[in-house]
Amino acid sequence: MRNKMLSLLTLLICGSLLHxxxxxxxxxxxxxxxxxxxxxxxxxxxFYGKLKDEPLDTFFGMDNGANVQVSAxxxxxxSLELKAGYTRSGKQYDLGMSYRIxxxxxxxxxxxxxxxxxxxxxxxxxxxxxxxxxxxFQAAPWKDRLVLxxxxxYDGYYERPVNGLGMxxxxxxxxxxxxxxxxxxxxxxxxNIVKQYLGKHDAYxxxxxxxxxxxxxxxxxxxxxxxxxxxxxxxxxxxxxxxGFNIQRRLGS
Length: 253
Description:
The chain is mostly beta strands and 253 residues long. It contains 3 helices and 12 strands, in the order H-E-E-E-E-E-E-E-E-E-H-E-E-H-E. The chain has a 12-stranded antiparallel barrel. It is globular, with a radius of gyration of 18 Å. The termini are far apart.
């Protein structure tokens, strides 16, 4: 336990140096602020243990395993980015691209995302694959304190909508609070095949984000182990909170 506490303290200390490079979030897609030649690596964990169950013995649920994701994106031309990632849950591979269609200083940033994904579904021998189509919008900071984010898209595999809402409140220029919410609009209207994969509750999380010039450290508590809007939009089985974190590192600047 002592080693885990020292690791978390080290991350928090490192996260108090300089201002960040983008208003990113735990799971939402946010319009990019990378320039050609720059890239980002993201390491994310969502722990399976419940935050409130024997927190001292399990170190707040971190001893019960985790869903892990490693991903990267690179700006290759203007605001065009190429993306790739791997998620442990479902042994999922992602390949995609995005293009920010608004100027970086526009009051509302807008970005179009396209992603191919391939994963293993329990009970099915062959891998499942399809595409995610998504648009991400983010308002410019209101009075330098409040940032709102919206994701809306379509999951080609489950043939259903994908939606996510985010709010970021800056306590200082380096430290902010984040909330994410993913409504399941089709819980009653989805086909019976899709319903079996929908959680009973909408997915949500709260997070603390520490920004530096080249790193973002995000510590979250949410009721889903999902890593992206598509998985989060499937909902969660319970309202129990689980710890998570993201470490995002910008390269090439």
